[in-house]
Amino acid sequence: MRRIFLLFSLFFTCICSAESLKGLDLLGLAKLNAPIIAREIDPNSAIGLLDVTFGDPMPNLTRLIQSGKVSAVRVHLGDGTPSNHQCRGNELSLSYMASQAKKWAAYSSKFATVQWYVNAWLEHGCTDRKLVDGWYAQIKKYWPAAIQVCSQWRGYCPAGLLKEIHGGGHGDVTSNDGVSLFDSNSFDFVNSGKVLTLGWTNCMNGRVTGEKGTPPPPLQRKNWCTTNEIRQAVRIMRSPQWKPVMAGCIDINPPRISKTNAEYYGLGADDGRGNKPMLILPDKVSGFKILSPQGKQVGCFKYYGTYTNPKLFRYYEGNCSGKTPDQLMDLIGGEWGKIVTGNKCYNWSSIRRLGVYR
């Protein structure tokens, strides 16, 4: 019996150690509400951030680290996206990289319990191997304690570095950057990173899903994450809860869609439906009740109209009960509930998109 127990313990330890650290890719941390984030994140969280573009992230990062919940931080020292991921401009100079590495080495030395990961440039498109090797040589020289990561946009990455994948796929470090966590297949994403898995959504850059035209410059953005969005993102990044067996209910499979966060058009432009659940289903009815597995009603969806596919119909929670995904999860008592109309019943997740993903 003792031998079986020891073997089980070793197996369990191996499984746990193979899991990546999970957290949020708070690129615009300098502008985000640090007290809210510090309260909502889980213990042993990883944090991603982008330096300079949104201002100085260090004061807010200090607040998060002082919460005692942050185990790892991934820093992008520069932003490769303004030049359309191209290898040009003084912002890619070796002297800049040296000054950034020195600055972060001095800051990180204050927090011995945090593991630091450093990427030279967010999504660089540089194929100049000498220059890219030079960036990482400067980092190694001035910030040797940090683990080096490379996030390229069809650019060159030196051998031996952790590779960071954005928007989908699996890698050493993964981030939803570019594809909202609320629209992704989060069941797959939460296990996509070997070392770090960082959830991202538009508000972490001060943007919205319903954005039209050219986005405002980073320092002029105002649509930063609310408590509800941070809370939902934190919950999504946890391991998915088991779906209970609910008699008579079927899954929401393609072409059906359960979208937890309807398009949001920003402060002053929302009609109440934004960032609240919506359904796209082949059933044309007046609406659906949102029930807990035990049958308690906690919310509702109201019929809105047809979808782009005329055989599918839209339903919004925002113009019915008006609750956010995290609020519905609290009322249900877990991730999973059901939506019901007449004799039709679907298994429904309060915080994760189902059916068709982006």
How many domains, in number, for the residues? 2
Determine the oligomeric state from the structure.
single chain
How large is the count of helical segments? Answer: 8
Q: What series of H and E elements makes up the topology?
A: HEHEHEHEHEEEHEHEEEEEHEE
The coarse silhouette is elongated
What is the SS-derived class? alpha/beta
Average pLDDT value? 92
Q: Give the biggest sheet.
A: 8 strands, parallel, barrel
Number of strands: 15
| CATH secondary-structure class of the largest domain | Alpha Beta
CATH topology of the largest domain: the name is TIM Barrel
Rg from Cα: 22 Å
CATH architecture grouping of the largest domain: Alpha-Beta Barrel
Unreliable residue stretches: 1-17
In order across it, which strands form the biggest sheet?
1-2-3-4-5-6-7-8
Q: Bin the helical content.
A: 10-25%
Strand content: 15-25%
Our measurement of the CA-to-CA distance between the termini, rounded to an integer number of angstroms, reads 49 Å
Q: What does this entry look like structurally?
A:
The longest helix has 17 residues. This protein has eight helices and 15 strands. The protein has 358 residues and is of the alpha/beta class. It is elongated. The N terminus is likely disordered. Helix 4 runs parallel beside helix 5. The protein has two domains: 199 residues, TIM Barrel, CATH 3.20.20; 93 residues, no CATH class. An eight-stranded parallel β-barrel has the order 1-2-3-4-5-6-7-8. A seven-stranded antiparallel sheet has the order 9-10-13-12-11-14-15, covered by helices on one side.
